[in-house]
Amino acid sequence: MSSIRWLLAALRKFILGNTFVRASTRGLLWLLASLWRATKGPSPRSTFADDSRVVFAQTPDHDGGHTLTPTSRVDTENPVGYISASSMPAFLQPYLNSGPGESQASEDTTTHSMAQESHPLHNLSDHHLGSSSVPHLPPSTSMQDLSAPPGVDGDAAVNSLPCLSKTHKCIFPGTPETLRRYDRKAIIPPDPSTFCLPPLAMDGLPNPPTPGWTACQHPKGALYFFQEEQRVFTDANLFDMETLLFINENLRIVNDFLSTHSVHLDPGVDLVLDENIDSDGTRECQYYFVNHVGRCVFWMDNGDSDLFPVTAHVKGMTSASHIRHELEAQYWLHCEYYPRAFELTHEIINELRDIVLHAASDVFTSSTTTVSWKIDDLRDMNTCIAGCNEIIGKHTENKFEGSNCLVGRLMHKFARDRVYNFHGEPGARLNIHKSVHGTVQKGTMFIRLLNLLLLSVPNSHLSGLRALSIDGIIRHSRWAQFVKGLISEWQDCNINAAVILAANVGFLSIQSVDQGSPAQMASYVSTVASIASILIGLLLLGYHRNLDSNSAAAISFTSNDTDWRRPLEALAVLYSLPFSMLLWSIVYFLWAFMGAKIFVAYMLLTGAVIAATMLILLCVAQAWSDWVRDSMAKKWRRMLSWPIAIFRKMYDSERSVPNV
């Protein structure tokens, strides 16, 4: 034993005392270490300096700096964060020294690089999370799915995210337009108004407690609730404890869904929850999110076209740019319903003013403008916008929600007009008479038969309605002008029908008119037609007198999902009845008058009939002239234009010519 110790001491003295041997030994050890590092690769117990699989978070005090803080790593099998192995003591790392042959399962529990897993996190359940919060992957996510992470960052749409409505059947997506604010069945009982205010109630009686929620009053009077910390809005009556628990439970479900699937939303995103009770008493909750930066609504579900009621009237909405206009229209409708949702700025006011000014210039410079407002309405809009611009920045605690509501409503209307006119599309509607679908409107057998019965009067009204309703869309200003023309026509018909009625009464009082004669029967028919013209005219006047500036009635008349031509044709027949009855009254009165004198002055009657026929043909020829002029077929032009040429030649022969 002593000899071995002596031999080792001599060898140690030889190596340490000989410089050449010591250098050679160190070089050999360095070479072996280099070869080992080159062949082994990165170690799973690497330090923070070379471990690219660890996500580093920044503290609020060192935002943007290089201070490293211990952060949790994500376990795909067990979504519970744990500290990186390299920062743990050696006695807590029993499996870190297993060498090259260790199991690969430990590698499957680590995350990918920072570029794949570092997302800005915002959960509605914690509006301002600390910097140490790290997103957790759902248990069903594998390493292969991390190339398309299930988080939502910015405007990225993630196809792998499951639908919220399929996970929780009580929640379904909605839009601001499908909210039931104006269709709620809340009834205030007509009980006696009895109450008692306590002494020193200087602020009135407090509302029932709604923890975490603030009761708000819309400028129009509606009650809604706002949770400022999580930016959640609801129209549900949270003063009712059962409803409050229902909304809070659905809010918790949404928060858990976002947290489970690592959905990261911006801090300014709004969430709207609305209680929906079906006819069978089932209570459900519709929801939607609002992105103020992108001016759109979105969901944790597939946004099908059925969510948008406008798709029932606007056909061909398929392009992304067209759908984008509808999303913006829904966004501004949300701002109108919840004016506390956004802050009114000079930039928004200037944008709205620019839209109104362009619309006004298009109205008074183009006769075929697609703007659905009259110039007086646009002038009033500009006045209101100027008033909104003056109060921006002048409020401190209380917001002027009326201005926000006004701007939201106007922006919604103009955005919806862009949807109707296909703005930004290759076939955008640039004039009011253009159909973006290129459809040719043909009359049905219904209107053809009634045109013969009503002396072709419905045809003229149908042409006006078709020009008014291109592609089934009613224009506000055109509708007002059209209704004013109808009112004037019906008033004239009532006056003329009253004159014909008086003439028939006088004719029937003549003793020479035989009882039961054709002349008397014709006079009776003329009298009935005159009375019908007056009655129908009065009814139509009473209904349309206050609708000259309201397009809602026209939309209700013409809206039909199957075939919108039939409502237009029925409306044309209805509008033509006073004038048609007046014409039939005149025709039968002339028949009665001529029938009584036919044996007395046969030649005079013949001349009167010929003269009346010539005048009627002249009016018909003048009415046909425009249609014949636009006809492209030469043979039809030659065949149809000969009566026009004859009458015009007769008319031109009576014109005065300059004396030269």
Automatic annotation (TrEMBL):
List compositional bias (Polar residues) regions by residue number.
100-116, 130-145
In residue numbers, the region (Disordered) covers 94-153
Where would one find the signal peptide in this protein? 1-17
Cite the entry's keywords alphabetically: Membrane, Signal, Transmembrane, Transmembrane helix
Q: Where are the transmembrane segments?
A: 521-541, 572-593, 599-624
**Name of the protein:** Transmembrane protein
Q: Which organism is it from?
A: Mycena sanguinolenta
